[in-house]
Amino acid sequence: MTEYIALLRGVNVGGITVRSADLRELFEALGFTSVRTVLASGNVAFEHGGREASAKLKARIEAALGDRFGYEAWIVLLTRAQLAEVVAAFPFDEHREGWHPYVLFGSDAAHLEALADAAGELDPDDDVIATGADVIYWHNRRERGVDSAFAKSTAKAVYKRTTTNRNLRTLHKLLG
Fold it and tell me: Among 67, 73, 132, 146, which residue's CB has the most CB atoms within a 10 Å radius?
């Protein structure tokens, strides 16, 4: 049995509403066990005993989400072990007062590279980043939040289909 984490992109914002109970029900209908949702922002922990390749499993979940909730679904699919490695590698002080600890997940290496390259012009008093394996670690000063330069970069339409962002506290809850 493999433990997985699915991070849904763009739910419960922009008119796409997915209730946690409905999400859990869908994952159970797909044959997954120990399904648990965390917060109302599209985070699902589950177990799967099949031998399906990750890419095929991801495509199956995305298709089911699209059929059930009527939107073009995109997810990041990780094993629990992979997520634990990502969280353990967070390079900043996650408890720094006044700062948000984030991880930006991506499925397109070129998009993550472009975002990292653009970060060379960031004000380190508002945003600091570091690259990791298929992620960008991001520390954002709370006062700036979504108005910071890096937040604005990540919100560009070109990145919508390939990236999703999570607060490190949410990721700890998913691992808990």
Answer: 73
Which of 123, 2, 17, 1 has the alpha carbon at shortest distance from 68?
17
| Dihedral sign (CA 112, 161, 25, 54) | negative
Q: Is 4 exposed, middle or buried (0-12, 13-18, 19+ CB in 10 A)?
A: buried
Would the pTM of this model clear 0.85, i.e. be above it? yes
Q: From CA 60, how far away is CA 55, in angstroms rounded? A: 9
One domain, residues 52 and 71: yes
Are 14 and 57 in a shared domain?
Answer: yes
**Domain that includes residue 95, residue range:** 89-175
> What's the rounded Cα separation, in Å, for the pair 7 and 91?
21
Which candidate, 77, 72, 1, places its Cα nearest to that of 33?
1
